[in-house]
Amino acid sequence: MKSRATVILIALVASLAGLALGAAEAFGATTAPLSGKWNIQAAGKPTSSGELLFRMTPGDGRDPVEVTVSVIAGATEDAVARKIRTTLGSRLRGDQFDVQMGQGSNVIVSDAHGRPNFSLELVDSDVDNLRVTVQSATPVAPPTVPEHAVPATQPNSELPQSPAPGSTVPATAPPQTAPPQTAPPVGAPSGAPANAPPPPPPPG
Predict the structure, then answer these.
(1) By residue range, what is the domain housing residue 111?
(2) For the whole prediction, is pTM greater than 0.85?
(3) Phi first, then psi: what are they for 167, rounded to 5°?
(4) Domain total of the chain
(5) Rounded CA gap, 180 and 20, in Å?
(6) Is the pLDDT of residue 29 over 60?
């Protein structure tokens, strides 16, 4: 009895583990990033014929759409890009997606209404010497900070400049007052110093 219960328990655990693994894989398959515009770029010259498998997954829970693009050996990058554009444009609904050629060998796949609600990826490729990259091409949002207003009074940007050496105007010196002169004593002969003794009286 115990061995049978153990077998049933092991089988139940294995079943639960399998369900959990399947759910994890399904969850991982639906967690691709969403965008409103994707860029596909082809680089290289294929040396073998093969197929490119793309997958478009809507963000609203609808089933993914897989698109297979045939590539011929020796095709140019521009020819591969045009083949991708033609095939995707014929498989994706025109009222929901816009598929156009970009610059060079780029293909732009965008939502017709500009909403970031689908993912696009390259699932598989068996073409030799051909590199295909799929990246989100959603434009960057404009800055939200408004431009600075111009002030009503423009600040004076000219700083006072120091005078060049040698060009400094000297300050005006204050006028100097001449010292007062002491008048000679009365009776002193002209030219005699002020402190000379008086001349002797004339003889009688």
Answers:
(1) 34-136
(2) no
(3) -100, 5
(4) 1
(5) 120
(6) no
